[in-house]
Amino acid sequence: MRAKGTAFRYGQNVDTDVIIPARYLNTSDPAELALHCMEDIDLAFAKKVKKGDLIVADENFGCGSSREHAPLAIKASGISCVIASSFARIFYRNSINIGLPILESPEAVAGIKNGDTVEVDFSSGTITNTSTGQSWSAQPFPPFIQKMIASDGLINYLRQEN
Amino acid sequence: MSMTMTQKILAFHANKESVVPGKLIMADLDLVLGNDITAPVAINEFAKFGVQEVFDKSKIALVPDHFTPNKDIKAAMQCKQMRLFAAEQEIEHYFEIGQMGIEHALLPEQGLVNAGDLIIGADSHTCTYGALGAFSTGVGSTDMAGGMATGKAWFKVPAALKFNLRGSLQPWVSGKDVILHIIGMIGVDGALYKSMEFCGEGVASLSIDDRFTICNMAIEAGAKNGIFGVDEVALTYLREHCQRTPVIYEADADARYEKTYDIDLSVIRPTVSFPHLPENTRTIDEVGEIKIDQVVIGSCTNGRISDLRIAAKLLNGKKVNPTVRTIVFPATQQIYLQAMEEGLLKIFVEAGAVVSTPTCGPCLGGHMGILAEGERAVATTNRNFVGRMGHPGSEVYLASPAVAAASALSGMIANPELVEVN
User: Fold this and answer.
1) Which residues of A touch B371 (CB under 8 A)?
2) Disulfide-capable partner of B55 in A11, B151, B220, B316 (CB 3.0 to 4.6 Å)?
């Protein structure tokens, strides 16, 4: 599995309230959530993002609330992968459970600027900045998590396994 | 193999002699919690799972507390979906408006939390129940769905940080100041993926409500859970609320902690977290002149009876500053009733504050106290992220009920020590 797209670069402690503000949590429709994704930190995001693009951010991405609406909004907006120096734990778990690929790599984050084109190979964990030619290897997911992401989340995965 | 309190609870529920940090385990759950925002997503996932019934009707709690009483049609639809699911599955612990309270105050009060329990909740502040010696942690809706279907969840066993408390708190300083002080010290990812274990001779001086507040905000340091040992204070609370026999786990004397912090409770000052992160703490002596528009006293962090008593003591016989909209939210119906019987609600109303039905509303910018652009609030809630209580250009300052009440009187962020109490 691979992903390729333009990087949207953010700083540290991007919280779930800016990823999807609570005022939009009266729905759980992913397409509707996607319209407001990142709105309070980057008003232009929802308009500019294209299928396959990536979010690249510093430490503690997804901190705060347990709202699964946050990774759902990101996934429905077309983002193919989030790369961060580190993730908040509930966001990390939720992303895997809904099948949103995420990778931890402080080195890659340091080498990617807003607007760079980035390519990710999930089976090897290789992240390449095709704008600069640099590449890094993140810890790849263990096979069961790769399967979970390929199955579009925990529930489908469990159903297939049983 | 030596273990911490958290590791022992996880090992027991995974049916293992011992566990080590980093290990992935599948564990049995004692309670699965969801609310009107997270449960609808979980119910949809549950339907995909292909089982007809939940694993145990008595071990699921559904609480419509976030956008309730229903704030708009979409919120009403989400609540209806949860209500129908609860009826169809005969969920024993569904709390309709009228019995409902803010989940993390309600569940312990209703006796659904016991020492030694393993609890997941699709709400990040589920970590509150560590005050009673339970392992509890926030998860997302899909984990909640899996939990409802199977009674199990997977966990990565956390490493631990030890907070060794000594001394006792000064007047007007409370559990909120302790946890804000700690988050200011270690940062919003200072305990990422780890458990925060609170121990030491200072614990005995902390009320159960102080402990709920401290564990509640463990997530604000990135922690998986916060936990206190079970002492006479916790046992007294459990005897009054929970019918089950407490299961007490103590950390081994040689349990391993990644780091130990020694904290002298007696030197902690009233503390305020400035926008837009809980780690941006200043003592009350360092806040300067900050004019405010709103005060919110309540939430799963600070809506308990002792919080209301503190606020009432400061507001008794006084008027809030006319420029400050002051909103008080008792966390449960029982707390509301108790506050009424103790005369606290009368004090609030006479002071010019409004008293609301229990709801999470303003804390997450849902309803019942949204801020306009450029407005500032002092809130006893738990997060001050950009846009948390309303407009992205508004600001939230996190503080204790004492600081919040003193600020309501003055119109600026204020020191409760300087208020002359009637």
Assistant:
1) none
2) B151
